[in-house]
Design goal:
By secondary structure, the protein is of the alpha/beta class. About 35% of the residues lie in helices and about 15% in strands. α6 links the parallel β3 and β4.
């Protein structure tokens, strides 16, 4: 949900319901206050001056003040999600946020890309023993190795790492999904995608490469605005994401050659050698009286050259599947 509630608890509740209705397995909040992230200050990097940013002209404190999910909303949101049967958890940004989420019985915790170098926070989250999902944006491989080591030595047993490009929105070209199977092999954990691209194509492709977690920003309507609405999915798109990633997951299967049981009836419609003109006993087989056609219960096409010029053992009617006994 991020900050797409637009500072309305009622809207936040509606987002939870819309996510559940779309078939999402879980909904994630962000748990912070502006003061847990920065100070109220102007100048330098405290101001967002990038002309390509969605938030140009703001300072960090103002942005976080607008986007935060107030702490007093968390319990009603958690309660409502449980009532709807959808998992709910959050991204904590400081120790107080972790304590709040633990009190609410959060089943897992998320570490944001910008927080994966915050070792005290990582240790606090790891000590809960809960599963952790960590995004890997703006991080070198050395940074990731250090963060993973902190989590694992701190008590994290179940870890998922999300390939993430921390631009908002990101593009297919800078998403680099081939990192996903490499990350699984390197770190020996579940892997996924924190996806800031538009649409669902990158997410479906990620599943094909082994992703088991897909994170997408979600809103009720991009047209109605919200701090992250420009790169968020609407409900019908989230439903499509649920359906298509499930199809992608199911289609992975295993390495398989040969004829599957489900295909067996379709053997009837492969080509085989058939008599296509009445043949008299002793008559030679030729390209005029035999052909490679459907259905598939005659001799295999590979034998055609070997039978041309040979003779019929008996009279054969047009439409007869050719067999060795007839030659």
């Amino acid at each position: 949900m991020s900050g797409n509630h637009n500072r309305s608890l009622e809207r936040a509740m509606t987002i939870v319901k819309a996510a559940a209705d779309a078939g999402a397995h879980a909904l994630k909040l962000q748990t912070y206050t502006p003061d847990s992230l920065t100070i109220d200050h102007r100048g330098g990097l405290f101001d967002i001056n990038d002309p390509n940013s969605l938030w140009v002209g703001r300072n960090l404190y103002e942005l976080y003040q607008e986007a935060r999910t107030p702490y007093e909303w968390h319990k009603p949101l958690f309660d409502y999600a449980k009532e709807l049967g959808i998992i709910i958890f959050s991204t904590p940004f400081d120790a107080e946020a972790v304590d709040l989420l633990e009190d609410l019985g959060a089943p897992a915790h998320k570490i944001a890309s910008f927080e994966n170098n915050h070792y005290p926070l990582l240790k606090k989250v790891a000590a809960t023993g809960k599963p952790i999902i960590m995004s890997t944006g703006v991080s070198s491989l050395e940074n990731l190795c250090g963060a993973v080591e902190i989590l694992r030595t701190g008590g994290c047993k179940d870890l998922a790492l999300l390939k993430c490009t921390s631009t908002y929105p990101s593009t297919p070209e800078n998403t680099n999904l081939r990192t996903i199977p490499h990350m699984r092999e390197l770190f020996g954990c579940e892997v996924g995608l924190s996806d800031h691209t538009m649409g669902i194509g990158a997410a479906v492709a990620a599943v094909a490469l082994g992703a088991t977690v897909i994170e997408k920003h979600f809103c009720l309507s991009r047209a109605e605005g919200g701090v992250d609405s420009a790169f968020s999915l609407e409900p019908h798109e989230l439903k499509a994401l649920v359906v298509e990633t499930e199809r992608a997951w199911q289609s992975l299967g295993k390495v398989q050659y040969g004829i599957q049981e489900a295909e067996r009836k379709s053997l009837n419609y492969k080509r085989s050698i058939y008599v296509v003109k009445d043949i008299q006993e002793g008559e030679e087989f030729s390209i005029e009286n035999v052909a490679i056609i459907r259905p598939g219960d005659g001799m295999e096409p590979k034998y055609i050259e070997g039978i041309l010029g040979r003779t019929a053992r008996t009279a054969i009617k047009r439409g007869t599947a050719l067999t060795w006994e007839l030659i």
